[in-house]
Amino acid sequence: MSIKALALELYRARQKVDMIEKELELQSGKEQETLKNALKTAQKEWQMLRKMLDGRKESGSFQKRLSSL
Predict the structure, then answer these.
(1) What span, in angstroms and rounded, lies between the C-alpha atoms of 65 and 42?
(2) Domain that holds residue 25
(3) I need a labelling partner for 28 at 20 to 30 A (CA). Which of 35, 46, 58, 68 fits?
(4) Is residue 39 a contact partner of residue 19, using CB atoms and an 8 Å limit?
(5) Pairwise CA distance, residues 26 & 19, whole Å
(6) Angle subtended at Cα 52 by Cα 48 and Cα 58, rounded to the nearest 5 degrees
(7) Using CA atoms, how far apart are residues 41 and 30, in angstroms rounded to an integer?
(8) What global pTM score does this model have?
(9) Does residue 10 contact residue 48 with C-beta atoms inside 8 Å?
(10) φ and ψ at 5, to 5 degrees?
(11) What total of structural domains would you count in the chain?
């Protein structure tokens, strides 16, 4: 997956986290528990994508340094 595609997925995942957080503020009771679980899942997905993007950027700069030697 390219950096651009990862960045787009990261953006979508962040939007999903934000949307769930806003819904969580408005809901109460059992719906709130469901949303908390969905929020945890969305945050884990966002973190995973963030790490993938960071790793891709780091490996790219590492490759550029090696090619210039």
Answers:
(1) 35
(2) 3-67
(3) 46
(4) no
(5) 11
(6) 145
(7) 17
(8) 0.77
(9) no
(10) -65, -40
(11) 1
Measured N-to-C along each axis, helices 30-67 and 3-26 cross at an angle, to the nearest 10 degrees, of: 160
How far, CA to CA in Å, does 18 sit from each of 11, 15, 22, 45, 61?
A: 11, 5, 6, 13, 31
| Residues with Cβ within 8 Å of residue 27, at least 6 apart in sequence | 35
CA distance 16 to 12: 6
Across the range 39-57, mean pLDDT stands at: 92
Contacts of 10 (CB under 8 A, 6+ apart): 46, 49, 50, 53
Phi-psi region of 28 (alpha: psi -120 to 50; beta: other; left: phi over 0): beta
| Whole-angstrom distance, CA of residue 32 vs CA of residue 54 | 32
